[in-house]
Write a structure and sequence with these properties.
Keywords: Signal. The protein has 140 residues and is α+β, with helices and mostly antiparallel strands. It contains 2 helices and 12 strands. The protein starts with a helix and ends with a strand.
């Protein structure tokens, strides 16, 4: 079978399966709320380990104390997830993809997503990994 034929077959199968999943209900109707992540200049992350499942809709609340500028990265997790929305001060952003979120001041950011692939995915604040600002998502 040619590469083009395999690609077309994969697209057709994915389309059919996607239709079946959509017919069973909207997975984004109700999100599982993860334990909120607090970014604290003195202690680092409040949570350093999350256990998730593929195909489950999650809301991840991230809250900054505002004492430092934080650039929170989770590039592999975000690349392997469907990002539904990012909410900042009650304003929704519908991104095509996501690499990082950044806090310049105190505030809250909610990321709504569905992990697509199992694996271990790190999240961290760039440059502060050795000061308590690193963690891992284990997706099963």
């Amino acid at each position: 079978m040619s590469k083009a034929a395999r690609t077309l077959l994969g697209m057709l199968v994915f389309g059919v399966l996607g239709t079946v999943v959509a017919a069973e209900g909207d997975p984004t109707r109700r999100a599982d709320r993860l334990e909120p992540l607090f970014l604290n200049a003195a202690t680092g992350f409040s949570v350093s380990h999350y256990e998730l499942r593929t195909g489950v809709y999650y809301r991840w609340r991230i809250e900054s104390d505002g004492l430092e500028e934080y650039r929170l990265l989770a590039p592999a997790l975000f690349r392997e997830s469907w990002i539904d929305q990012v909410v900042i001060e009650d304003k929704e952003v519908k991104p095509f993809g996501l690499y990082a979120v950044e806090f310049d001041d105190e505030g809250v950011i909610d990321v709504w997503f569905i992990p697509q692939r199992p694996g271990e995915y790190t999240f961290y604040v760039e440059g502060l990994e050795n000061q308590g600002f690193s963690g891992v998502f284990v997706v099963k």
